[in-house]
Structures are given as C-alpha cells and as structure tokens.
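Hey, resending since the last one bounced:
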Amino acid sequence: MNDTTPTPHGFVVAVSLLGLVAFWALAARIGNDATVLPGPLSVWQLIVEEAASGELSRHMTATLFRVACAFFLAMGFGLVIGIVLGTKPMLNRWLGPWLVVLLNVPALVVIVLCYLWIGLNEVAAITAVALNKTAMVAVTIREGVHAMDPKLSEMARSFRFGPAKKLRHLILPQLWPYVASSTRNGLAIIWKIVLVVEFLGRSNGVGFQIHLYFQLFEIGYVLAYSLSFVALMLLIEYGIVGVLETRATRWRQPA
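The structure tokens again:
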C-alpha cells in the first residue's frame, strides 16, 4: 500500500537549502581558490566575526529599516492605486499608461534622480525604492480586482454592503493571493534595490559594505553580508508571510 502522507514543507525547504550549500561547497572545492569562491565554512567564520564585532547587526539593521519603510509605502500606495484603477474602468483607461511608463523606467534612473532632486539622504533612498515597487504592486492588485467573482459583487449589492464592509469581507479576501504575490516579489526586489541605493549613496547598510569589500576584492565578506540578509529574508518569507497567507486563505479550503 502506497503511503500518500505528504512530506512536511519545512523539511523539504531545509533539505533543499542544504543541497544548495553542498553544491556551493563542491564548487569551491573544485575551484580550489578561496579568493575567487570561498567555501561555506570560510564565509560562516566571517559572519561570526562580523557578528561578534557588532558590524553585521549595525549594517543589517540599517538595511532592514530602509527595506521596511520602502516596502510598506509601496504596498500601501500600490494597494490603493490598484483597487481604485481596478474598480474604475474610466480612470484605469486614462491612468493605466502611467503605470506602464513607471514599470519600464529603470530602477537606477529613479535612484539617481531622487538623489539629485532630494539629496543624498534617507528620504531620497526610501523614496527611490518605494517608487520602483509601487507600480508593480498596483498592476498586480488591479489584475486581481479584474479577476474577482462578479457573483459575489452582486451579492454585496443585494445585501447593501457599505464600502468598508465590502472592502473587508469581499474585496480583500479575494485579493489576498495577489497581495501575497506582491509581498513576496516586493521583499525580493526591494531589498536588492536598497542595496543599489546604499551602494551608490549611503554610509551604512549591507549595500555599503558590499561596495567597500568590492573595492578591496574581498569576495568572502561580500558573500557574508549578502547571505546574512538573504537568510533574514528567508525567515520573513517562511516565518511570517507564509503563516499569514495560510490563515488568510483558510476560508477557501473545503470544510
């Protein structure tokens, strides 16, 4: 008799990541040149040293602060814009091309313009990152609104739902898969753009450290700071976003 019990997702993720580390270790061993590709143990030792000195936590905190600010701004404005354009066809017809333009403006251009217009400060850095992501969130949410079940909208009209009640009980539950997708993509993209922002014009953060060690050709330190923040993003993805998604979509599952 076949055992159809599914393997726990956490176990699969852990084994998959261990496989990636093993592949990295094998590639480093084959290359046999720590100045080009240091192995996992060497990078781990650097992470421990930077953590013990306090430098790792200081720079990661600075980057995480910028990521959080830009993320919530982009998600907030993108959610509002997406819902408005999705529910107002005429407005979407006129303003939709604006989103297409914003989607196709390179992130580097937005960053440079914000630094030139606002200055080399935190406001410019966070604004540049948020602007780069807002259009993408808005487009995703707008498509989610277009995909909503029209029968549920008719039901809401029949029961005379007010705007707030309709938003809470009708729109947001159906939009959650699109919100979750925007959240995942947003976190993945925003922190990378933040690194570019820090690389170009900040005096702290993971991007600043990568810039510093790039100039010194210290690949081990570049990997140490990069992978430390990747690990933090993985914890947020599987520990927060995944849990919230499961709870928010529980109503879709059969009783």
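The chain has a mean pLDDT of 85.

Sorry for the duplicate.
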